[in-house]
């Protein structure tokens, strides 16, 4: 009896269908449960440090850290005091509501709602 061995010669590529630019940014900001929960908590419960927010969401600080960095880079989160200011106090996060509304509108337009 001869057994045939099949090997995969290539890995499947990541699917990246073409979408309007605003849709991609909105998905990056909102397309994850931890990010969405962080935004919601900051809007509903108010500003928080990374440690406080991690406790609110029942996630580890290390898990939350990358999500907060992405949201900050996308302009969804504001940091107090700003990172440009050297400071030893704990930094507080809040949501830039205008930026969040813009992403919501971009997503709606990009998906054909407007």
TrEMBL record:
CDD domains: HTH_ARSR. Signal peptide: none annotated. Residues 25-109 form the HTH arsR-type domain. It comes from the Bacteria. InterPro entries: ArsR-like_HTH (IPR011991), HTH_ArsR_DNA-bd_dom (IPR001845), WH-like_DNA-bd_sf (IPR036388), WH_DNA-bd_sf (IPR036390). This is HTH arsR-type domain-containing protein. It comes from Aeromicrobium alkaliterrae.
